[in-house]
Amino acid sequence: MSAPRGKSRRNLPVAAACAVCAAAMVGAAYAAVPLYNWFCRTTGFAGTPQVAAAAPAQISERSIKVRFDANVAGGLPWQFQPEESFVKVKVGEVVTVNYRVVNQSARETLGIASYNVSPPTAGGYFSKINCFCFSEQRLGPGEKRDMTVVFFVDPELLKDPEQQSLDTITLSYTMYPVRQPEKPLAQGRS
Known about the structure:
With 190 residues, the protein is α+β, with helices and mostly antiparallel strands. Helices cover 21% and strands 36% of the residues.
């Protein structure tokens, strides 16, 4: 038995509202990752370091220990480690450190690094001028490479009363495997 004609017309706005709501939810799902990424980079939320174009104008006498951590995700046959486990830096001082990566496999592999800073509240004050993160790294069999990070701790940290007891910041990188696209099979002759 079919619904009366008037009742199906009343359901049309409800169906349209449901369709608009579903489309908005799908759109929000696609926009969530880039918006969250932008928010973290802008605010330093969740320990996301800032990206700087130049060094600060002042260097403070206050020193902070910066520790370096390196991890390799499963599926990537690399050895990855910092050249030094930590450095003492003055707030505002530009520092260059190196990480060494070695491809321990007999084939070419690709990796990409992500990073964060701990404690998370220090992310807004940890600024990188140059970094290998989020750049695809291609290493041949047994290849070794030094990768550089140039950073500083922003002097604005000194104005934050919540950071007065901060004495150590940890910069942590994790290398993840990047899947290589399948090579096309040679096309047969016609």
